[in-house]
Design brief:
single chain, about 110 residues, mainly alpha, about 0% strand, elongated
C-alpha cells in the first residue's frame, strides 16, 4: 500500500507547476544568472564562485522541496478532507509522511 501511495505522491509532485517551478526551475535559473554575474571571480584559498553558487542553489532546491511538500500540502489535505480519507484507509501516518518526503527528494534530486 505504501509503494502505491509513494507513486501517487510522486505524480502529485510532478503535476504541480508551482512546486516544480520553485523546487527545480528556480535554483537552475538562479545558478545560471548568478554564475554569469559572479562567475569570473576567484579568491585564493577558496572555491570558485561557480562552485559556491552551485552548492547554495542545490541546498536551496532541496530545502524548498522538502519544506513545501510537507507542511502546506498536509494543511491543504486537511482542508480538502483528504486527510480524513487517509485515516480511514489501512495505511500508517508515518508511511504517508515518509512517502511525501521521499517524493519531494526524488523530484528535487535533478
Amino acid at each position: 500500500m505504501s509503494s502505491m501511495y509513494l507513486r501517487l505522491e510522486i505524480r502529485r509532485a510532478l503535476r504541480d507547476p508551482k512546486f516544480l517551478a520553485l523546487g527545480v526551475a528556480a535554483p537552475v535559473g538562479f545558478y545560471l544568472l548568478f554564475s554569469s554575474i559572479f562567475g569570473g571571480q576567484h579568491r585564493p584559498g577558496q572555491l570558485d564562485a561557480e562552485t559556491e553558487i552551485m552548492v547554495a542553489m542545490a541546498a536551496f532546491g532541496a530545502m524548498w522541496a522538502v519544506l513545501s511538500s510537507t507542511g502546506p500540502r498536509i494543511a491543504e489535505e486537511r482542508q480538502n478532507g483528504w486527510a480524513t480519507q487517509l485515516s480511514a484507509m489501512p495505511i500508517r501516518s508515518s508511511s504517508v509522511l515518509v512517502a511525501k518526503l521521499v517524493s519531494a527528494v526524488l523530484v528535487a534530486l535533478p
